[in-house]
Specification:
It contains 15 helices and 21 strands. With 553 residues, the chain is α/β, with parallel strands linked by helices. The chain has three domains: 12-137, no CATH class; 166-276 and 373-542, Rossmann fold (3-Layer(aba) Sandwich), CATH 3.40.50.300; 294-361, no CATH class.
């Protein structure tokens, strides 16, 4: 349970001046000598009530602290110290005070009159923090523990997210950003997925798909890790969660051409399945494979569309085309030792298509493209169509080239989207109600800017319409500004780790006050800010280390 021990002594009094007024959104207070307050502490102050003689409580988030004196300038301070004499006592002792700036979070009686002058300011207690953030308005069944709020006076409470704004129907999606390593983006994503699953009323109706993009980080999530330190165990306990590995995990690993029958992976987990792409398995996804190929005139897009249609529908020119080699080195695209014009497409366009396809599936590939799949090599889309609620699927793409990673990610998204849009008739059990999709390095697949691609359009479809289908995107990247703003804009919850000053100056962070932006540059490892649809201001949280086994590097 959260720590209820809170000091009851006042921190100081509210202060409004001729030049700096308190408003319905902000107020200031001076601190009593010896009091320690930090940015992101939550304070409370008595406010006018709805009737004469009644009071209410206004809660606020401390954004910055300033120390002010009666000196007119820094030069005056220099002169008062005997013109800069460091050893001597100042001739004039300056009168000074530390002032805290506060953004209003809420009022327990919905009264947003400006806070009056000279009101006593206290740290909010655990119940007050929950009231300030609107957690008390969340039904208990919809509360998802998202981390612990720790105050400067030692008080703590759980920061809950509203499930209806994560999985729908109100809103959906979580986006995580921050400097690599310091922000612990992947660890937090795995923690919040674990929290969702543990607190779900029907976890058997939720499926999770995770892309492993770095080393073997997520290839042992079903194995218990080493014993956690006492302080980490206490965090799990305070959050009301069990420190345990993931249950019912299925690993899907890419095939290797160098080691037949083995995966092209940094680690071989227990019970994995191999996947590979022959032409028949990839024919309807060629547009995804060519995502990163420059096509300013649109000629490639046109020829790829016609080839996809010809292969998928087994049309006349492609009746005998069933492998990558046949597509590259046989009719209708190649004959008599050279590329041939086909349909409405000029020979030069066909030649460009063949050159790029050869590079992608022959000369510069990791091993997932094969003319004929072995019996133990699955079609990834077929495996995803069998997805079950209560299971977590980890798809490893860590050792694949960028174009291959894009194909796999797009294949997964497209298959899941189609599965949820129209349930197959041959399924023996219903499609999971919710499918959570976690991907790191989202900027690779949905970059900012005007240029779009098939993979970007697929991500945008999930971000904008996935909620209605029950497809939830949890995404991460180092820089929010590097991701398409329609993706981050549709995320009801934003998780922010430590970020550089140049990055927080980007327009993507305009929902934060300037003071909070600068505080982001000082966040420590494991400290994160949560901006949630229910909260009026972002809050700072900490979270426990994972309980599953992690790769030792």
């Amino acid at each position: 349970m959260p720590d209820e021990t809170v000091g009851n002594s006042a921190l100081g009094r509210t202060s409004a001046t001729e030049r700096e007024a308190n408003t319905s959104d902000k107020f200031s207070f001076w601190l009593a000598p010896g009091v320690i307050v930090n940015p992101f502490d939550i304070v409370q102050v008595e406010q006018v009530g709805p009737a004469a003689g009644e009071t209410s409580k206004t809660y606020g988030l401390v954004t910055i602290l300033e120390h002010r004196t009666d000196a007119a300038s820094h030069l005056a301070n220099f002169i008062s110290n005997n013109f800069g004499e460091l050893a001597a006592e100042p001739n004039t002792l300056r009168q000074g005070a530390t002032v805290g700036r506060v953004n209003v979070l809420s009022n327990n009686r919905d009264i947003y009159m400006p806070v009056s002058n000279e009101r006593l300011v206290h740290f909010a207690d655990a119940a007050g923090i929950e009231e300030a953030l609107g957690i008390t308005e969340m039904p208990a069944a919809d509360r998802v523990p998202a981390g612990l709020i720790k105050m400067s006076n030692g008080a703590s409470t759980v920061a809950y997210l509203d499930r209806r704004y994560i999985l729908g129907p109100e809103s959906a999606h979580i986006n995580i950003s921050g400097i690599s390593g310091l922000a612990t983006k992947t660890s937090y994503a795995m923690f919040i997925i674990q929290s969702i699953l543990q607190k779900a009323a029907n976890p058997e109706k939720i499926a999770v798909i995770i892309l492993n993009v770095k080393q073997a980080d997520l290839l042992q999530i079903d194995k218990p890790g080493p014993s956690l330190p006492v302080e980490e165990m206490e965090k799990w306990e305070d959050l009301g969660l069990e420190p345990r590995p993931f249950k019912n995990v299925v690993y899907l690993l890419p095939a290797s051409s160098e080691h037949p029958g083995r995966p092209n992976s940094f680690l071989e987990p227990d019970g994995y399945h191999l996947f590979a792409y022959d032409l028949d398995a990839a024919a309807d996804k060629l547009d995804l494979l060519f995502t990163n190929v420059s096509d300013p005139t649109g000629t490639m897009d046109a020829i790829i569309g016609d080839i996809m249609q010809g292969i998928v529908n087994n049309e006349g020119d492609f009746k005998n085309v069933h492998s990558w080699s046949q597509l590259l080195n046989g009719p209708p695209l190649f004959k008599d030792g050279q590329s041939k014009g086909w349909g409405d497409h000029h020979r030069s366009s066909v030649g460009k298509f063949r050159r790029n396809l050869r590079r992608l599936v022959k000369t510069r590939q990791s091993g997932i493209f094969m003319d004929a799949r072995a019996k133990n090599q699955k079609v990834l889309a077929d495996e995803v169509r069998k997805i079950k609620g209560g299971y977590t699927y980890v798809v490893d793409i860590a050792k694949l080239y960028d174009d291959e990673q894009t194909l796999v990610f797009g294949d997964l998204l497209r298959t899941v989207y189609e599965l949820k849009a129209e349930e197959p008739e041959d399924r023996s059990e219903p499609v999971p109600e919710k499918i959570i999709f976690f991907v790191d390095e989202l900027n690779k697949y949905a970059p900012g800017g005007a240029r779009t691609s098939p993979i970007t359009e697929q991500v945008l479809d999930i971000a904008e319409r996935g909620r209605s289908l029950g497809v939830i995107l949890i995404s991460a990247q180092q820089f929010m500004s590097a991701v398409h703003n329609r993706v981050t804009g549709n995320a009801a919850t934003k998780i922010l780790g430590r970020t550089g000053a140049a990055e927080v100056a980007q327009p993507d962070y305009r929902f934060l006050d300037d003071e909070l932006k600068m505080s982001m540059t000082r966040l420590g490892k494991g400290e994160l800010l949560i901006s949630h649809a229910v909260y009026r201001q972002p809050v700072k949280i900490i979270f426990p280390k994972p309980a599953y086994r992690q790769e030792q590097r």
